[in-house]
Amino acid sequence: QVQLVESGGGLVQAGASLRLSCRASGRAESIDNVAWFRQAPGTESEFVGLINWSLGITAYADFVEGRFTISRDRAKNTAFLQMSTLKPEDTAVYYCAAKLSGQKGYDTRGQGTQVTVSS
């Protein structure tokens, strides 16, 4: 079992930066990938990007356009989503999810953290 807890959300102005954290507890050694998703009110969840836990290889959704960077600190069992040049349309609840070894999907997710970008 793995539990994920996000932190770092808040209210910022357009153009600002914010770093979200996703801390894993439990059997973190079973994590294959950690992905970030976001969901704005009235919309479906949207994939932001992911990182391979062991290799650190990352992949991003097209809308990121180089503004976001995902990293991880394996010693602290924590993944990060560094966001810069934030736009009002980035406003959403951001949550992390993990694909564990032997699983096909991102079945383990955190509770999410609110990011609000004002214009």
- Determine the fraction of residues in helical runs and give it as a percent range: under 10%
Number of E-state strands: 11
What is the residue-mean pLDDT, rounded to a whole number?
96
C-alpha Rg (nearest Å) = 13 Å
Q: Given the C-alpha coordinates, what overall shape results?
A: globular
Contiguous runs where pLDDT drops below 50 for at least 5 residues? none
Percent in strands: over 45%
Q: Secondary-structure element sequence?
A: EEEEEEEEEEE
Structural class: mainly beta
Describe the sheet with the most strands: 7 strands, mixed
Give the N-terminus to C-terminus distance in angstroms.
40 Å
Put simply, the count of helices is: 0
How is this structure best summarized?
The chain is mainly beta. 0% of the residues lie in helices and 56% in strands.
Question: What is the element layout, followed by pairings?
Answer:
Blueprint: E1 2-7, E2 10-13, E3 18-26, E4 31-39, E5 46-52, E6 58-60, E7 68-73, E8 78-83, E9 92-100, E10 108-109, E11 113-118
Parallel strand pairs: 2-11
Antiparallel strand pairs: 1-3, 3-8, 4-5, 4-9, 5-6, 7-8, 9-10, 9-11
How does this structure look, described?
By secondary structure, this protein is an all-beta fold. 0% of the residues lie in helices and 56% in strands. The protein contains no helices and eleven strands. Strands 2, 4, 5, 6, 9, 10 and 11 form a seven-stranded mixed β-sheet that branches. Strands 1-3-8-7 form a four-stranded antiparallel β-sheet, with no helix packed on it. Strand 4 and strand 5 (46-52) form a beta hairpin. It is globular and about 40 Å long. The model has no long low-confidence stretch (mean pLDDT 96).
